[in-house]
Amino acid sequence: MSDPFKNSIEQLKKASNVLNLSEETLKGLINPMRVVEVFFPVVMDNGEVKFFTGFRSQHNNTRGPFKGGLRFSPEVSESEVKALSSWMTWKCAVADVPFGGGKGGVIVDTKTLSKGELENLSRAFSRAISDVIGPEKDVPAPDMYTDGQVMEWMNDEYQKITGSKSLATFTGKPLSYGGSEGRTEATGFGGFKILEAVAEKINLVPSETSIAIQGVGNVGFYFAHFAKEAGYKIVALSDSKGAIYSEKGLDPGLVMEYKKTHGSLSGFPESKDISNEDLLLVSCDVLVPAALENVITEKNAEDIKALVVIEMANGPVDPKADEIFEKRGVIAVPDILSNSGGVTVSYFEWHQNMRNEKWSKEDVLQKLSQKMKIAFDAGWDLSIQKKLYLRTAFYVLAVERVLEAGYNKK
Ligand code: NAD
Questions:
Q1: How distant is the alpha carbon of residue 85 from its chain centre?
Q2: What is the DSSP letter of 134?
Q3: Does the beta carbon of 242 lie inside 6 Å of ligand 1?
């Protein structure tokens, strides 16, 4: 399986060729500015102290404070957080939010912890990285196996250590503790806005446009929900256990209700069960991978029928598949744009916390809608002007923005 970091470097190299950058500048764009490793004690329920290893990779802050998630998982490693932090730099630049890229995590299996131990671990990690984070330095957010509650504990601990009253050091917090309205649906809604923007460019009519979505979790579900509301036909949906197909169209709300009572999508009325591999190959106009990375490779890229692919997962199309798409003229909208709705609303949360404001959900979604459209148009126009494949255009745009902000200046 291809490595997402290597894939991202390949994209960066393509952008660097278009921009004629020196080897030295490219090196500066690939490597994080700072990576912090911490080893910290946590008191467990039995009174014993256990030590854990955590990381924070700060890739680039030329455009603003580092921004990106914290994951608690046994698979966390220095190389993984470095890779993911660079992705955040490009995502924030494309979305044009005033942040750079960061990512971090702790090597831990949260399933082995009680709630009290999880709180102790979150607070201890916050203390361990407190020197390098802060509202104007580095603003972490939830990621795999961390959530709003973990962010609340970490922010609270940060306040105790620093004496600050600010809620802006962490985003993705609960609504009752400085969180933003609209964060839950932000990524799926942002992706739907990208669908609308593509539809406008290539004249897709919603009622005549069929969509297959891999993964009906937070992102996939909200994408499906908003697309269905707008009149698009959702012909296939899936979860980790399998997929369903209906030529007539599926109602995502009813599918989720069915999943809750039956434990899977299999057997949903008036649909047929298909495999997750087949979901990618069904006859449809728009394919939305919203689950895992590297699901579209040279093995299946030729057989994909969709004309448009909107990447909602991180890195679902590998570079070989991308070359095939480019040759075939498939419009693949890259993850650094399509799933940037989440980080954009995180920016809105930070902005509200910094100014002690509280925006309504309508306000948040309307502002997000505008930002997604502006971001899409900038990359789309560049791809037309410079005759670039869409993904390359978005990387060029992101790199240009970081360089324009002064990254390679003395
Ligand atoms: P989630 O855990 O809510 O949902 C993931 C979905 O994928 C679930 O429905 C799960 O059953 C399904 N799935 C897992 N394995 C599968 C498989 N083999 N085949 C098909 N489906 C499978 O996660 P999410 O928050 O919806 O995130 C989905 C993707 O979007 C991830 O790649 C994530 O990194 C990316 N993403 C999420 C956000 C966000 O704000 N949540 C932001 C940016 C990117």
A1: 11
A2: B
A3: no
Pocket test for ligand 1, best of 97, 239, 260, 343 (most atoms within 8 A of CB): 239
pLDDT, position 7 = 79
The pTM (predicted TM-score) of the whole model is 0.96
**pLDDT at residue 9, as a whole number:** 87
Cβ–ligand 1 distance for 276 under 6 Å, the answer: yes
Q: 272: which 2 tokens? A: 């047929």
Opening angle at CA 146, ends 142 and 150, nearest 5 = 90
Cα-to-centroid distance, 410 and ligand 1 (Å): 41
**Alpha-helical runs (H) found in 75-204:** 78-95, 115-129, 148-162, 183-202
For the chain, residues with pLDDT lower than 50 are none
Q: How many CA atoms lie within 13 A of 329 on its CB side?
A: 1
- The rounded distance, in Å, linking the Cα atoms of 95 and 401 is 11
User: How many Å separate Cα 12 from the centre of its chain?
Assistant: 18
The three-state secondary structure class of 391 is: helix
Using a 6 Å cutoff on CB, does residue 141 contact ligand 1? Answer: no
Please list the residues that pair with 402 across neighbouring strands: none
What is the atom index within ligand 1 of the atom nearest the CA of 314?
A: 32
Q: Which two tokens stand for residue 100?
A: 């750079």
Please give the pLDDT value at position 301: 98
Q: Kindly state the tokens that stand for 99.
A: 């942040």
- pLDDT tens for 79-133 read 989 989 999 999 999 999 999 999 999 999 999 999 999 999 999 999 999 999 9
Which of 304, 297, 303 has its CA nearest to residue 321?
A: 297
Using an 8 Å Cβ cutoff, are 113 and 121 in contact? Answer: yes
